[in-house]
Amino acid sequence: MNVALPEIVWNTDSETVKKSHLSRFAQALGFDIEDYDSLYRWSIARPGAFWREVWEFSGSLGDLGARDNIDTPNMGQQHFFPDGKINVAENLLRHNHDALAVVEASASGEVRNRVTFGQLRTEVERVAAWLESVGVGEGDVVATWGTNRLEAVVSFLATAAVGAIWTSASPDLSTQAVSDRLGQVHPVVLFASPSYTYNSTDYDITDRVETLRQSIPSIAHVVEFGREGGKSALSQSLEWESLDGDGSEFEYRRFPFNQPLLIMYTSGTTGKPKAIVHSGGGILIRNYAEHTFHNDLGPGDVFFWYTNIAWMMFHYLVLSLSSGSAIVVYDDAALRRTDEGPDFGVLWRVAAAAGATTMGVSPGYLRTLERTGYCPRDEHDLRSLRTFMATGAPVPPDLWTWCQNNISSEIRLGSLSGGTETLGAFVTVTPWHPFRPGEMSCNVLGIAADVFDERGVSVIGTKGELVITQPFPSMPLTFWGDGGDERYYNAYFSGHPGVWTHGDLAEKTIWGGTIIHGRSDNTLNPGGVRIGTAEIYHSLDEFDEIQDAVVFGRAIDQDEEVVLCLVMAETDSLDEELAQRIRHAIRRRSSPRHVPASIYQVAEIPQTLNGKRNEAAAKAAANGLDTQRFTSLANPQILSDYAAIRRTKGF
């Protein structure tokens, strides 16, 4: 069989390999630095030994205890190092006090604050001392509702420092959506940003904060941050600057390795968002390994990923402090409105001003730049940037070619895929691997990722379910609330008993990479043939007339037909001639099975607050199903247009 390898758009060299943190780790264990497969196989064959070696290599503070994991046949309950004692904040703040820790950027793209590890530690200890003074400790929940600022980072670390549990929400969520999340977990302290500026618009959500406080009786203290000038209109609240303890030196106590530290939320597509409980030790050790060995971060690096504080990438960003790198926080839009039109350069100005060495964005953002003809390397000094990454959705191969041509032909390119439920990637890249567009280069060390067909058999070169076959430290502890263990099991282990089923349609390549084709629960199934939605989106990339798109299945006569909805560019509209060209392109690049039965023009695509298209919401509306469960949409009003599709004829 003659199989052509995809084009390599970035390749490593001996100097890059030699200088990488992954090479230092491999050599310390006696592995050849050109033999990733052997290192990876050992990491999943002896996970307890592997994660202990990671801990020792990191120089982390604390004790893992005698046992590697809990001895149980239930994969979801096989937590690592049950006797360990650590403090997550102490470990994230343990680096050189004079080294850069946080760069805070303004909406204009300029740096407004540079904070060293010593300064960050002082600020965290001040807020942690106050938390202790009001009785916050182990088992208590602290919530932050605000923008991606330094205060959000500090509130997370201060909560970790006292052994409490942190959770977050972004300010663009409705009061009901925030209540659906925070109301489940009963926070005792709320850090809130009652006013903020986003996309050149000022927002005052004071009334919403007051409403939330009254709807959640457990909230005993509200602390305001982020208001620029003037006094707070919040009643019975404290100002961030006024927080203080009893004046004594803060002491970092150490807590059980698997003590809950973080609550994150599912997207809310099947009811209220589920509250996922993460352990402090699990996410700390897991993120250190990923950031250090795969992202190649360490002291002197500056890591910038565009995110809000509710998305897992914010936590991923903050946890990269474990490697000793600095992070960049930015709290405004990726494409800001100005009087002169969209500001395409703000994120690149942030990266240049901060001296970012690693940067990450979403594929949708890249597509927007590509379609407008914006060329970052012609406009900005990006000489410090050596790694550029993307995640959040499958990235079409042509976008990586665009990155190479318009950002730099020198930087390392990479894509990763994982999830909120695991606070890290399953498949990603390394400084050792060449990068082929459209796929992740390798499995993450210590993560036994595989692809199963419908029989539960591992397959290569065939689409199937992305699964994890062995425990790993950052598996959730449970879902918060009554019946949490059962709901957690049903969500991830019921598809293949004893195996984590993630919900992604994936494909392993014969050269060791992984292709993600989209969510398997949004997989199209016309005529019983499984089709990934990403394959259709890729076929649309050649059409400048199309600004955005969403594809989903519509029930028809005990079968399913493919429906495509398009947002057209400002000066274009959908007609029969264009619809036929689109069908021809999809048939040519994919297959006749992929061709939509109906194509519609719509005003907007349903999007989550993180900017991801929500195919499930569009599908539910178009099929006449309940849409009340979609509480994470940025534009829920648009679903009425999709409901109307049932009564209209498309092209």
Topology, element by element:
Blueprint lengths: L13 H6 L1 H8 L7 H10 L1 H12 L26 E2 L1 H5 L7 E6 L5 E6 H17 L7 E5 L4 H12 L3 E5 L5 H11 L3 E4 L2 E4 L2 E4 L1 H10 L5 E4 L13 E2 L15 E2 L3 E6 L9 E5 H15 L7 E4 L6 H8 L6 E5 L5 E3 L2 E3 L2 H9 L3 E4 L1 H10 L3 H4 L7 E4 L6 H10 L5 E4 L1 E3 L4 E5 L13 E2 L5 E4 L11 E5 L9 E2 L4 H9 L7 E9 L5 E6 L13 H7 L6 E11 L2 E10 L7 H14 L8 E4 L13 H8 L16 H6 L7
Helix pairs in contact: 3-4, 4-10, 6-7, 8-9, 17-18
Please give the CATH architecture of the largest domain: 3-Layer(aba) Sandwich
Strand content: 15-25%
Straight-line N-to-C gap: 41 Å
Please give the CATH class of the largest domain: Alpha Beta
Radius of gyration: 24 Å
Assign the structural class, choosing from mainly alpha, mainly beta, alpha/beta, alpha+beta, or little secondary structure.
Answer: alpha/beta
The overall average pLDDT, rounded, is 90
Biggest sheet, open or closed, and with what strands and sense?
8 strands, mixed
Strands across the major sheet, in which order?
10-9-6-4-5-12-13-26
- The CATH superfamily title of the largest domain: ANL, N-terminal domain
- In total, the number of strands is 31
Low-confidence stretches: none
Oligomer: single chain
Question: Please, how many helices?
Answer: 20
Count structural domains. 2
**What gross morphology would you assign?**
globular
